Amino acid sequence: MILSALLTSVGINLALCLLFFTLYSILRKQPGNINVYAPRLVAEGKAQQRGRFNLESLLPTASWVKKAWQPSEDELLSIVGFDAVVFMRIITFSLKVFSVAGVLGIFILLPINFVGTQLSEDSSDLSSKSLDSFSISNVNDGSNRLWIHFCAAYIVTGVVCYLLYYEYNYISSKRISYFYSSRPQPHQFTILVRGIPIPSGSTCSETVESFFRENHPSTYLSHSVVRRTSKLQGLISDAEKLYRRLAQLKLKNHTSQRFGRDGFLGIFGHKVDLLDHYEKKLEDVEHKVRLEQSSLPGKEVSAAFVSFKSQLGAAVALHIQQGINPTEWVTERAPEPHDVHWPFFSSSYLKRLIRTLLVFVACAALTILFLIPVVIVQSLTNLEQLETWFPFLEGILSLYVEILLHNLLNLILPKVKACHGFFFFLHKIMHFSNINDKGMCNMLVCRTVVSQVITGYLPSLILSTFLSFVPPIMIMFSSMQGYISHSQIEKSACIKVLWFTIWNIFFANVLSGTALYQVSVFLEPQKIPSVLAEAVPAQASFFIAYVVTSGWTSLSSELFRLIPLLCNFFKRVFSGKDDDEFEVPSISYHSIIPKVIFFGLLGTTYFFLSPLILPFLLVYYCMGYIIYRNQLLNVYAPKYETGGRFWPIVHDSTIFSLVLMHIIAIGIFGLKKLPLASSLIIPLPILTLLFHEYCQKRFLPIFKAYPNECLVKKDKEDLNDPTITEFCENLVTAYRDPALSMQYPGSTDGRNSPLLHSA
């Protein structure tokens, strides 16, 4: 039953993937869809909208696969940036790991598991086998064949550690090379200073100027004081929306389209001339903006962006304590100007501290609430146990089957009587079940199919649906914590989503599925290996179905881009034209990287327990390599660069996966009555953690700050750059709040265009 349910899930998702791939190949060539499937190319002027429809565009082609495969890593770096290259290295790292694990698991461990007789005495009858027959649970207790699993654990650990070292070394060296080859950037010469002590009778700007001219006379260049502009930013956003609405109305020649209602959604309220109505509203907003701008000098925050003449000067000021009081003149690295999260500066230190505590509580509450769908999902995976606990469900399922039989089978079967194979299949089932009544056989077949769909496909689909709401919630939580940049917010959200997924999808499912009454055992750490050894293998079928449902289908949905496609379609249908001012999206690393890492955790822990999961993971990573390359080249554009700072997250989580696998191995060999193997596994987690500590000391500092040697060399190169003088002049205003740079013309008639623009 479990194997049939798994095959049902695989079949459904494989059909969905093929459908999405075919539709994508067709829709990407249709007129009007280039803004959905290649917005990056449109924004860069490398692609244009097709004017008319042709029959050739109805033929699905795989040419996009070749175009996504062709660019080298250096070309990818020049087109999409360093973060995208690191992201693709994460996928290729996973491919390398599970290629080796797949060879060991599929060709060596899987046959050994299958020929075991621990679960069934008859190893020749494949039809009587369940999915557990392909796992280590089927190997006889005390069998010498378990030493092969022991050796596989050591081999895979060595391979993973070698690849981790290689990738860490490669990415860190690539990070230095990218730093040398890049042009001077404002954030490399700037630091953020907070906790500025402002004496009475002086301003924040005067205090900063005096302090840094006295303490950094040879390197100090300029500064930009931060002000509270959250209210001003809201007003400017309202003004921009009104201007765009006015511009659209002025482009329409039909007088009837100028009139509408001024209420909610244009449905309620009085009927007015929309052009005059929006012009009056815009005048009011402009007046409020001018009043708010005039009051900004009194809204200084005790923080400032301080720029220096050299990168070494900025680094010295960053890493040396500036004042006697360590809580004053606190320095931190400045983000890129367009990466600054300006609302952060409108909150006081006490508010940020309270928000951090609230975020911690909210994350804990979300984790607890998410256990509800986990329990529901695990109940669906074990339908027989659910019917035992709640007998009335058996009647509901039988009633559902009867309705389905009446509405489907009795209508479909008479139309397919010519299908000899179908009735041959029914005959075999009747002969196998000793059922002579054809209606009862149909009832059995339908009930089996329904049960397979419920236990195999529905649980992972429900869990994936609930999990899709977590990344935006974590982004909201991280933005409340007081990070000064969008990249820090996304990195924090990535870590939150990752550990939320590991706990709620892996541990919660394992415990609720097979150890619901053994949670108290985890209060005794010495029993954790044995508990995990019993619980984890039993959930293999669920996690295989989860990889197929959440992995394969999410990749197909990423390629198909259904929601942007529908939005683009309705916009063209109801407005009659495309939006020329569309915004090129950026890739959501905070939701994609945790999923890639989590599937790596599943593969690492299950490669010797249930190797059947490995082919599904390899398909996922192969699909992901091509699809994400296509999306990075055609769809997404980077909004900021973190310098590859997502890789340390991948390294740490991979080490955690290895240690978890070692703990499970200790327990599983103990349960299999092979105590010597269990004892010999103990050095593995110790050696892995020592390797992790070495990598932390060897490579992690490079991801935190560039070394002095690199800064001195780059400063010497910058001195010979003819554009460095112009760069320093622009650096003075690089960190000015965008809300302070907005200019407004004196009138709102059509002669002034654009109404709003950045200085």
TrEMBL record:
It is found in: Membrane. One of its GO terms (molecular function) is calcium-activated cation channel activity. InterPro entries: Csc1-like (IPR045122), CSC1/OSCA1-like_7TM (IPR003864), CSC1/OSCA1-like_cyt (IPR027815), CSC1/OSCA1-like_N (IPR032880). Residues 188-343 form the CSC1/OSCA1-like cytosolic domain. Residues 446-669 form the CSC1/OSCA1-like 7TM region domain. It is a multi-pass membrane protein. This is CSC1-like protein HYP1.
